Amino acid sequence: MALLPLVIAPDPRLKTKSEPVAAVTEEIRMLAFDMLETMYHERGVGLAAVQVGVLMRLIVADVDWREEEQGKQWVFINPEILELSDKPHTYKEGCLSFPDQFADVERPERVRVRFTDLDGQVREKTFTGLLATCVQHEIDHINGITFVDHISRIKKDMILRKLQKLKKAGAFDHDHDHVHGEHCNHG
């Protein structure tokens, strides 16, 4: 497995709708495993293929992992939302493509998703809690939507200007240290 370089905002790839995965191949499985490894390395709970520069409808998640211990790994190929609950839930979201930036985002509390797994089986599953938030966040990514598209224009512009300045200064040209924030899910 390999660590993959992250796409950091602002970047036009993050605003591009990803293409469907034609078939579950060994290359797709390896990409999913590399994405999981990258997600753990960067201390995230979800990652979309577009965030590693691959415009395919593939996302991974593990909201239960802790340092040195994996939780339940989820791989979603060609995920589509079938149903959203009416009840909203607000969570302070962050994103590996927006390092150290967080904002309150309101999303439906429950989501039902159809997706293909790594064995090529089409599945339907309902998610709640943090996993529901994570799945919706990552599906947004493959649709060219980022979490800052769900917040006020002023806050969004502030975050994007800050990241643009950091990119110009070369802050993301190397492995950046992770800043432990209130939503880290590890020790």
Written account of the structure:
The chain starts with 25 loop residues before the first helix and ends in a 19-residue tail after the last helix. The strands form 2 sheets. The protein has a 5-stranded antiparallel β-sheet. It has a two-stranded antiparallel ribbon with strand order 4-5. The radius of gyration is 16 Å and the shape is globular. It has 187 residues and is of the alpha+beta class. It has helices at 26-41, 129-142, 153-168, and strands at 46-48, 58-61, 74-84, 88-95, 98-108, 110-116, 122-128. A hairpin with a 5-residue loop joins strand 6 and strand 7.
For this entry, give a set of tags:
single chain; 187 residues; alpha+beta; 5-stranded antiparallel sheet; two-stranded antiparallel sheet; 7 strands; globular; disordered C terminus
What does this entry show, briefly?
The protein is an alpha+beta fold and 187 residues long.
Unreliable spans: 175-187
> How many individual helices?
3
Describe the global form: globular
Helical percentage: 10-25%
In terms of structural class, how would the helical and strand content be classed? alpha+beta
Tally the beta strands.
Answer: 7
Write the layout of secondary structure elements.
Elements: H1 26-41, E1 46-48, E2 58-61, E3 74-84, E4 88-95, E5 98-108, E6 110-116, E7 122-128, H2 129-142, H3 153-168
Antiparallel strand pairs: 1-2, 2-3, 3-6, 4-5, 6-7
